[in-house]
Amino acid sequence: MVEILTSQVVSGLATGCVYALIALGFVLIFKATDVVNFAQGEFVMASGFISYTLLIRFELPYWLVFLATIALSGIMGVALERVVVRPIMTAPIFSIVIATIGASIVMRSSAGILYGYDVLPLPTIFSKDPIHWGVLNFTLMDAGVIGSSLVIMVVLYLFFKLTKTGTAMRATAQSQTAARLMGVSVGRIFSLTWAISAGIGGVAGVLIAPIIYLDPNLGFIGVKAFAGAILGGFGSIPGAIVGGMLLGILENLSGYFFNAGIKQVSTYILLILVLVVRPGGLFGAAPIRRV
Amino acid sequence: MKRLLSSAGALAGLIGLLVVLNGGAPTWAEDGVTDKEVIIGAGMDLTGAVANWGVNIKAGMEAVFDRVNDAGGVHGRKIKLIAYDHVYQPPKAVTNAKRLVERDKVFVMMGHLGTPTTKAIKEYLEEKQVPNIFPATLASMWTTSGKWHVGDLASYADQTWLIIDYLVNERKIKKIASFYQDDEYGLDGHLAGKARLKQYELAYVAEVDYKRADIDFSSQAAKLKESGAEAVIVQAVYREPPRLAEQCHAIGYYPQFIGPGPIVVNKTIELGGKHVEGLIGVEVYPLPTDPGPFLDLYRADMKKYFPGLPPDTTNLYGYQKAALFVEALQRTGRNLTRDSLLKSIESIKDWDPGWGLKYSYGGDNRRGMSRVGRLVMVKNGKWTKMSQWIELKEGGRR
Amino acid sequence: MGMKTLERLKGLPLVVVGVGLLALPSFVDNYILYVMTRLFVYVLVALGLNLLTGYTGQVSLGHAAFFAIGAYTAAVLAESWRWPSVLCVVAAAVFTAVVGYLLGLPCLRLSGLYLAMATLGFTLIVQEMLLQLAVITHGSEGMKVRPASILGFTFDSDYRKYFLLLVVTTSMLIVARNLIRGRTGRAFLAIRENERAAEAMGVNLAQYKTIAFAISALYTGLAGALSAFLVGFLDPQEFSVFLSIQFITIIILGGLGSLLGSVLGAGFLIILPELLAGLDVWQALVYGLLMVLTIIFMPYGLSGAIRRHAYRWLGVGVEPIVPRRLGH
Asked: What ipTM, to 2 d.p.?
C-alpha cells in the first residue's frame, strides 16, 4: 500500500514538474506584459517536433538537440511576440489573448500539415526501466524529468536574482514606466521574456514528449498547466511551481482513489475551493482593485 | 430607432409564422449520379481530435478511386469523393451532412468517421433515404440499424467476445480486468465483455477507465495490480497500451494485456518497445505489411497517389472500404440507384479482394466481413499470428 | 447631407438585413438554412456572454456549461418526461439562469483570470457530470432529441427551424438592447468601468453582478435548449472547455460590449469555416491566420472597426470605448 502510494506521488510529481515548467512560461509572460499566452502549450508541442526533426531526420547528438531545441523554441517565442503581440500591444488585453489563441490554432494545424496527426515516439536518454529503492518505486525517466525541471528552475532563479538582465526583467514586471526611466529597454525585455518562456516550454516539450508521445494536439496540456499556475496564484513564480507540482500529484491520487472522471475534475474542484477562500490563489496576493 | 427595431421584430414574427404555416414539403429524387460521374460524400475529422484517422481513411479511399478513375471509372462513371471536416463535433457533422446531401447532392454517404458524429446524422440520412455505407466506426449499432446503414468489419463487441472466450476457455484465466476509454468507443467493448463474462458466471475483477487525453496511467496501473487480474483487456487506441504496460511494469506487475483491433498496428510496437512484448490483439483485417495481391495493389496505389503517407492500418481501413464499394458499383451496372446499390451490396457473398478474407452480405445481414478475426501477438517486436481466421460469434452488450 | 438625414439613415441597414433574413429561405437550400439557424444559436450565446463579459467586465469560460445545462435540461424534459416543447425551452432557460445565479455568488470575490479559471473549472465539472449521471443524460452514449412542436405544429424542417430561431433571436436581441439602455445596463457599465465608483453611486455590486450572471446564463441556456432541438443529438464531449473558448472568441472578435459585435462575431465563427470547407487539412491554418489578422487590424473587434469608420467618415455614432483591462 505504502509502495503504491509513493509510486503514485513520484510519478505524479514528474508530470507535475512538467506542468510547473509550462506554468512558469505562462506566469513570466503575464508578469511582464499582462498577457495570458494561450499558445504556451503549443510551444511545448512545437519544440517536441523540433527535437524530433533534429534527432531523427538530422541525427544530431542528444545534448546538442536539447540545446538547439531550447534556442529554436526561444526564437519562436520572439517571433510570436514580434509578429502577433507587438503590433497590438496597446489594444485591449483580451484582444491580445485572442490573438494568441489564433496563433495556437495556426501552430497546431501547421504541425498537423507538416507531420500528420499520428503520434510519434520521441527518443529520450532516460530509461523507462523500474527502479526499486526502499518504499520508492520509480523509473529513471521520472527521476530525470524531476531532476531536469529542478535544475531549470534553479538556473532561472539565479538568472533573475544575480544578472543585470534578470533584475531589469523583474523591474519591468513591477513597473514598466519606472523601468523605462531607469534606462531599461522595455521592448527588448518583452522579447526576452517571450524567448525565455518559449525556451522553458521547449524544455517541457523535450521532457514530456517521450512520455506521452508527440502529436499536434500535445499543446492541450497547456490548459492543465494554466490551472496549476492559477492554483498557485497567477503572477507568482513559486506559486506556479508549487501549483503545477501539486496538480500532478493530486491528479494521480484522485485517479487512484476514484476514477478517471474524478481525476479529471479533482483539480478544478480544489481550484474553485482554493479560489473561494483565497481569491488570489495559494501564493498570490488578492487582486488589487484599481480605483 | 427603438420603434423601428420593435416593428421589425413584430414583422419578422408575423411573416415567419405565415411562411412556416405554408411549410416546405421535402422533395426527393435520385442524386449524385450522372452519365459520367457518381458523387459520394464523407464527413471526416481532418484537423481535430481524431484527425489521424480522418486524414488517412480519406486518403485510403481516394487511392482506390484515383486508380479506378484513371482506368476510366466504373461502367463509364468516375467516382468523386467530397469530404468535409467535422472536427469530431456532432453539430458540425450535421452541417456537413446537409451540405453534402442538399448542395453537393451526393449519391451515398461513405466512410463517415466517428460514432457520435455518425449517430448525429443517422435520422437525417434515413429521412433523406441516403445510404450510410461503411461508416468508419466499429460500434455495434451500424450492423443492426436497418436498411440505410451498412457496416463492414467486426464490431468491438464481437471482438471482445472473442477475447473473453479465448481467455476463459484456452488460457483458463478467471481474473480478468478491463481498462477502457470512458466514451462510446471504449464502452462498446467494455460492456460487451461484461455481458460475455456474465455468461461464464464471471465478472471483471477491476474496471478502470481513462480519458482520451490522459497522459499518466500510474493510478490505473496500481488499481489493476491490486485487483490481482491475470489478464487486462485494453479497450483503447494504440497510444495508451504502451504507456499502461510501462507503468504496470514499473510497479512489478506483468499481466497478459489483450485488446481489440485498434491496437493491432505497428505503431503500438514502435511506441512501446519491449514493454508491449507478449501483447495480444484481435486482428480484423491484415496488417498493411502482410503479403497478398490485394495488399500489393494497396501499397502500389498508396505509393502512387499518396507518396507522403506511409502504408498504415488507418489508410488501409479506408482503402478496403473503397475497394468494397467499387465492387458493389461493378455489380450494380449502368442502372445505378440507391436501391440497386444496396441490393448489389446484399448480393456480395464470399467475395475476397485478394487477401484471403471474404466479405459476405445478404438479406438483413449488414455485417460484411464482420464475422472474422484472428488473434495476433507481439513476438520479438513483430505482430505474429496465433490462430487462423476464425468465425466470430455475434457479440452484444447484453 | 445633414446630420439629421444620416441619423435617420442609420435604420436603413437594419431594414435591409431584416428583409434579407425574411426573404432568405426562398432563395437558399436547407444547408444554408441550417448554418443560419446555428448562427442564431451562437448569436444568443454571444449576447448572453457579452452582457456578462463585455458590459459587466466579468470574464467567463463557463458558458459551455450553461449551454450544456440548457441543452440537457430541455432534452431530458422533452424525451424522458414528455413535457411540451415550449415548457422544455422555458424551463431550461430558467433553470440555467438559476444555476448562473448560484455560480455568480461564489464568483463575487473573483475577477479577471481567477474568475476565468474558476468558471473554466465549472465547465469541466459540468461536462464530467453529464458523463457520470448517465441514468439521466445517457452519458457518453449521447442523447437523441426529437424536433420541437408547439400545439401540434412540429418544427421538423430546416425551413421551420430557421423561422423559429429567427423570431426568438430577434426578440432576445431587442430585449438585450432595452436592457442595456436601461437602468440595469447603466449599472453594468458602471461596474465594468470602476467597481468602487459604481458602489459609491449606489449600485449594489453583489446584486448586479449575480444578476448579470443569471441573465447571461438565461440567454446561453435558451440557446442550448434550442440547439438541442435543432441538432437533434447531444454528446457530452461537445460541451468542452474549447467550446467556452470559442464563445469568448466570438465576443472579442466581434467586439466587447457591443450587440452588433455579438452578431458579427458569431458570423465569423460559424460562417467562415463553411467558406473554408473546401480547403481540406489547410482549413484550420487559414482560419487561425484570419483570426490573428482580424485582431491585428481590428483590435477592437469587427464592430469596433465598423463603428470607428462610421464615426470617422460619416460622423455617425460615437467613438467606441473599450477598457484595456477587464475585471481588475
From this structure: 0.88
